[in-house]
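Retro notes
What went well: the complex prediction finally ran end to end.
Inputs used:
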Amino acid sequence: MALISNRFLREGRALPQELEDWRQKIETLAKGYGLDFFETIFEMCTYEEINMIASYGGFPTRYPHWRWGMDYIQMQTSYEYGLSKIYEMVINTDPSYAYLLDNNLVVDQKLVMSHVFGHVDFFKNNLWFAPTNRKMLDQMANHAAKVRKLMDKHGQSPVESFIDLCLSLDNLVDPHSPHIRRERRTSQAEYEEAHTNREVVGKIPAKGYMDKHINPPEFLAAQREKKAEELAKMRRYPEEPVRDVLGFLLEAAPLESWQHQILQIIRDEAMYFAPQGQTKIMNEGWATYWHTKMMTQDILDDSEVIDYCDHHSGTTAMRPGQLNPYKMGVELWRHIEERWDKGQHGKDWVDCDDPRERRRWDTGAMEGREKIFQVRRTHNDITFLDTFLTADFCRQQGFFTTAYDKRAREWVIDSRDFADVKKGLLQMVASRGTPRVMVTDANAFNRGELMLEHTHEGLDIQLDWAAVTLKNLATIWRRSVHLDTVVDGKPIRLSHDGTELKKSERKEDG
Amino acid sequence: MLNIDRDLGRFRDIVKGKVRKDLKKYMSSGELIGRKGKNVVSIPLPQIGIPRLRYGENKSGVGQGDGEQGDGAGQGQEAGDAAGEHVLEVDVSLDELAEILGEELELPRIEPKGTKESMAERNRYKGIAQQGPESLRHFKRTYRRALQRTIASGGFDAERPVIIPIKEDKRYRHYVVEREPRSAAVVVYMMDVSGSMGNEQKEIVRNQAFWIDTWLSHHYKDVETRFIIHDASAREVDRHTFFHTRESGGTLISSAYKLCVEILTKDYDPAEWNIYPFHFSDGDNWSGSDTRACIELLKNTLIPMSNQFSYAQVDSQYGSGQFIKDLLEAFGDEEAVTLSRVPNRDAIMDSIKDLLGKGR
């Protein structure tokens, strides 16, 4: 087993000469276009190997878990029946590793290589990836070794069960947390300081007879109340609601040492993968933008055009009613480039509402290339769409919102209105299927119970899954947990004590 | 061996229920979906969901493409990255499916019986030989030998990679003789097609009989099958009729058992055959006296002849479903009798496991 890992890590099957020549050419080309990437190492894999790496999220080894096996058999079956095939696999590490399927056509390999350089440029330069661990390859291997050791010591099933519990919560992290400097928590000393000086709050020293004029009793009362509130806040734990539920559990849950280690591993890995979810559209679009540019302008041989078109359109195809991040991304990048090439931005452009003039608008600015490099540095999918998704673009692309028609029992086109579409897209990207949940109190009802709050943004959470998730959370917390949410417009509190779920209505103010 | 094999093995063990039984409830059922066209079915692969806080049914989404307001939009889906949460439907041939089922099933209590030798010999083309008929030439192996020889002799030209095999290069598929215990077996399928069986019930029963039959004929080469349908009277039919007939009428289960005994006594000596009667019904027999007749028949004749008597009962909205209770009372601790209830389509697979599961 170790042999295989080593082979992947250090001595991978080098590219055959023909592909190695292409790799050098493409690398030079990509640099010429201004792409700036980590050293990128390509390795040839059989489809079993590439499916394995894909099930491991791009890594040659992970901690033992049945989930990888489940993903693997899916990909394997799907490949064997010709339903799907993984063309491209690259990981965000320095140096970066990319995998090529060994029986692909040469034209596919060229496409993949140029696509990969796009991704690695994005990994290296996009701000959201800045806090990720670029030595993750080593860390994943360390995690695997650590978990194996814990399994040897505590048994496979107990450790695996605990991993399952953690995985059930692993979407409850805060992808923004590495970018935010949190205020430090009040120390015990500060608290006591504040507590003992309670009486003199805001009181201005004055002679006895002036005192009631200088420090009117109402004022003092208000000051006292304010102070009490601050004290209460200091005493509340956490002081501010915490979105990083896993991080909070690490800090506060009654865990045994081995459980703590596992939870830490799951959180580290979830945080490592989080930026990929935050930038899916941008990242795939960026890589697609660059492979099309390089392939069609520099690389393709006449004999390869048909195969290239076939495979390229395969990745950017839209199935009816579905959003393809590759397609969406690449089109938006091109839209931005065109706008800045033609100077279609700024006050004059916004104020212009003559359609003919808008169509003809071209200041010859040619700033598109510069602009897209700048955008790829700072944006994530949400800000990307929010900033650059225009009504023109929306119309060109034929976007629509969908709604479920209960009578016809199918999804139907609801609206093509720009505002609706943009809202719908942003909501989709913002939520990514994960409701925003925060820990508000670790000592609810003064019984050490855990209180969570779901910020309801128009969609209800799925109750049966929530019930199990809360049960898992209660198992880790070892006391009851509560989740405040809204179901069918009614404020509801879901409580789980580890054995059963209780659903109670609550007043809006909680 | 790849690293992943260990995780794959673990997943399989969980799916088969060998370990981590707590996960069973998150498993999406390995439900068998009906046939598509000839000899092909589509099955979802087993999946275990990881419960997470997530949004319920999407109330709206965004799509892309042509169409007017109100037109069907396909499935409005997220652009997202919910990998591993989808159910994959794959077309699998019947043989492969039987193979998959076979990992978990067996003909219980089968014994070596039969007049011929107790071991059957089978030829399987598993080996490779240097001589053989051209029709069995193994192209890949031959090519590989030729390529090796050409390279070794320095005759390989990368610019013009022509490989010409000579006689020494040729390799042929060759059979090896496999010996396996012969177990002559006969399976008698009896199906209730009476009026109380609705379309859904008949469909379930047929599906179940179909899968059992498919699996058995794949795994046991010497199995003979006989088919009986009955309402108030029973008759023997061929396979096609059995799976396609639509009849209706009253129900006298004893008629089927009588016919079954008749067939068995005439053609299959229990000393030489393993005998497996299967009966599918909604358990709504016409009268208590007929049920008593059935039990007598089973107790005195049919069960002693058989290796195992299997009864599967579908839930029906009309019938009382009394029969399985009567059988349970009469044969509750009889090892050679298995009873199973099939409340709905999803339960077909479990019911087959009830009847034929390993180590039951």
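What we learned: The first strand of chain A starts at residue 40 and ends at 45.
What to try next: split runs per interface for comparison.
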